[in-house]
Every structure is written in structure tokens, then in C-alpha cells.
Amino acid sequence: MNNPDPQVETVVDLEAIAHNVRILVEHAGDAAVMVVVKADGYNHGAVEVAKAALAAGARELGVTTVEEAVKLRRAGITAPILCWLNTSDTDYVRAIAADIEIAVSSVAHLEAVARAARELNRMAILTLKVDTGLNRNGVSQTEYPRVLSLLRELVAAGTVRFRAIFSHLAQADAPHHPSIDLQRDRFLECVAEAKEQGLQPELVHLSNSAAALTRPDLAFDMVRPGIAVYGLSPIPEISDFGLRPAMTFRARVALVKQVAAGEGVSYGHEWIAPHDTTVALIPAGYADGVPRVLGGRFDVWLGGARRPNRGRICMDQLVVDLGDNAAGVREGDTAILFGGAPGAPHPQEWADTAGTIHYEIVCAPRGRVVRTHIGGAR
Ligand SMILES: Cc1ncc(COP(=O)(O)O)c(C=O)c1O
């Protein structure tokens, strides 16, 4: 059962997800949109986000593991689902039985998929992930010819259905970076090589959020946005693209108290009150996903204004300064850590201060943090 009154929560607005998907669908033109819901929907709730996104016009879903894909099927989602971070000992039988599209990165992966398909006596839906320069997963250029010749045999034998070829860009957040065009050229060569072998993919796709929003020439048959679906700009220095952040991270004030001039606050007394003041205790700390490195360098939205954090962020709690507390903040009031209200901090501010990216900020809330969904189709 849901905790009806959590101390710390993330609230995910599914109407914002739908709004963002509509923007991406518009940018995609004739191409389909595959919404990436790996890592539990970037910590927004994969099932809820997937349903809202499909209702708003997305056509397919992308995840990393078979486990993530099966979870979506179990929730009643029938749209195509691709999983792409597989190994030779992944449970492909489970994936094939659940109609999950499997991406392979090597001959060994493809052999394992074929074994599972034969065992189940059912055709596997197969996608080739090709490495065009990111040098992470994906078939290497050297192994690609061997993958193609095995794939040709498996298609001829009816063991696999060849659904797609895709690749992933290394620097799409710099839309004019020469590596993008280089990867595009290598990608097109990979597609051409497959065709020369008589292999005809039903789809080819390359673009993540950044490319989907800035490089319409790379849309091909489908785009694969992740972060933009959640309302965070993949290139914040260029534009917010009209996206609406979906996640609000908030907590209820646990205590309001006076601190006298000269008193230190939190471990190490890194902050000493320069005058008598009032502080509010926020029951959220680094165990809940508030980066400790933000200590003394960020604000929360509370009582209609930004309130600066004072002293160190602890495992479970942090303290903010209310000054004379003219706003009358009381125990139980809601403090917004990021997102939500106009004026509240944006995950990008946390990312800038913490020296990271907003992806990591929204993926951080965990443990005690209760997630709820509002708005949209569920
Ligand atoms: C293969 C692949 N496609 C698409 C995405 C979505 O990327 P983004 O969240 O930058 O849109 C990712 C994310 O890492 C990915 O690994």
C-alpha cells in the first residue's frame, strides 16, 4: 500500500511526460518515436511513463535488460519493446517468449539467441546494435561481417526475424560535432553492408534526444529519446525545447527551530549563524539522493521563497535558513528540492553545482523516497 503521507517523495507528472512526447513526435516528422524507459524510466517509473508515452503518440519502447522489458509486458503493454544490453548468458528464452525484441552486440550473443529460439521453437525478433564510434556496446567493425553471415543463415532458416539495425551517438549534444556525421556515415555503411548480404532491416534508427531535437536529417525510421521525455533538455545551453520537467522532489519540514548567533549548524559546524535565525529541518539527505557535495551551495523552495541550505548535508537530513521566518513556515510544510513550482530549483542547477549532469540528479532519489504519479493517462 502507498504511504499516504510520505516525508520525502518524488511526484511525477504524467501530463508533462505526454506533453514532452508530443513535442518529440512533432520533431520526428514521419519517423516513429521509441521512448527509452530503461533504469525504471530514468527513475520516473517505467510502466507509468511507458503507458503515458504510448497514449501520447510514442510507438515503441526501449530498455537495457530483458528483466526491464518483461516487467513492461507483465504490466499489459503490447507495444514493441527493444532491450539492448545483453550478454551471452542472458535469458533469451524468456525474452522470446515475451515477444521482446533483442539487440545483439556479437556473434556469441547471436548464437545464444538462436539457441533459445530453437529451444522454444519460436522465431526471435532480432536487432543489430552496431558500434559506429561510441566504443561501448554494439557489434565492432571487425566482427560485423561474421555477424552478418550468421544472421543471413538464421534468417534463411526462419530462426530469427531481422527487425532493425541501430547505433548510438557519442556527441549528439554538440549538434555540429564532426563525430556525428562520421558516425552517420559508418552507420549507413553498416546498413548498406547488410543489404549487400541480402539482409533487409525493417527499421534503422540512430537518434537519442539531442539528435531527435536538433538533427532531423538523422531521424531515419525512428528516433530513441530518453531524457527529453522526462522534460530535461539534452542541450540545456541551447534551449529547453519547450519541454516540461516531469519530476518534483519534495519533503515535508520535520522541525522548525531557533538558532542563536554564533551557533554552528550540522556536522563539522561548517556554518556558524552570523545572527539569531530560524531554521527548518528537511528530512532528506544523501541516502535519499541529495548529493552531499551540494552542502551549503543550494536552495530549496519553501514558504514561497528560496531558502539556502546551511552546513553539511547528512545521510538523512539537511537544514535550511528561514531568517526571521516572516513567512511562518511550520513543521509539515512542503519544501521543494527541485522541480514543481515556478521559482523552485531545476535539476540542472544541482547538476551544475555538483559537477554532473541532470540525468544523474533525477536518477538519484531512492530508498525511502516514495514515488507518486499525477495527471495523464495511466
Ligand atoms: C542506445 C540508447 N538509445 C537512446 C538513449 C537515450 O538517450 P537520451 O536519454 O540522451 O535521449 C540511450 C541512453 O543512454 C541509449 O543508451
Q: CA-to-CA gap between the ends?
A: 18 Å
**Whole-number tally of structural domains:** 2
Biggest sheet architecture: 8 strands, parallel, barrel
- Class based on secondary structure composition and strand pairing: alpha/beta
The named CATH superfamily of the largest domain: Alanine racemase
SSE sequence, one letter per element: EHEHHEHEHEHEHEHEHEEEEEEEEEEHHE
**Small molecules bound in the structure, each named once:** pyridoxal-5'-phosphate
Widest β-sheet, arrangement of strands: 2-3-4-5-6-7-8-9
Strand content: 15-25%
Describe this structure in words.
By secondary structure, this protein is an alpha/beta fold. The protein has two domains: 31-230, TIM Barrel (Alpha-Beta Barrel), CATH 3.20.20; 247-374, Lyase, Ornithine Decarboxylase, Chain A, domain 1, CATH 2.40.37. It is built from eleven helices and 19 strands. The protein has helices at residues 14-28, 38-43, 46-55, 66-74, 92-97, 107-120, 144-156, 178-196, 209-214, 347-354, 358-363, and strands spanning 8-13, 32-36, 60-63, 81-83, 101-104, 124-129, 160-166, 203-207, 222-223, 247-252, 255-259, 264-265, 271-272, 277-282, 299-302, 305-310, 318-323, 334-338, 370-374. Strands 2-3-4-5-6-7-8-9 form an eight-stranded parallel β-barrel, surrounded by six helices. A five-stranded antiparallel beta sheet has the order 11-14-17-16-15, with no helix packed on it. A four-stranded mixed beta sheet has the order 18-10-1-19. Helix 4 (66-74) links the parallel strand 3 (60-63) and strand 4. Helix 6 (107-120) packs parallel to helix 7. The model has no long low-confidence stretch (mean pLDDT 97). Residues 36, 84, 168, 208-209, 224-228, 234 line the site of pyridoxal-5'-phosphate. Residues 36, 84, 168, 208-209, 224-228, 234 line the site of pyridoxal-5'-phosphate (PLP).
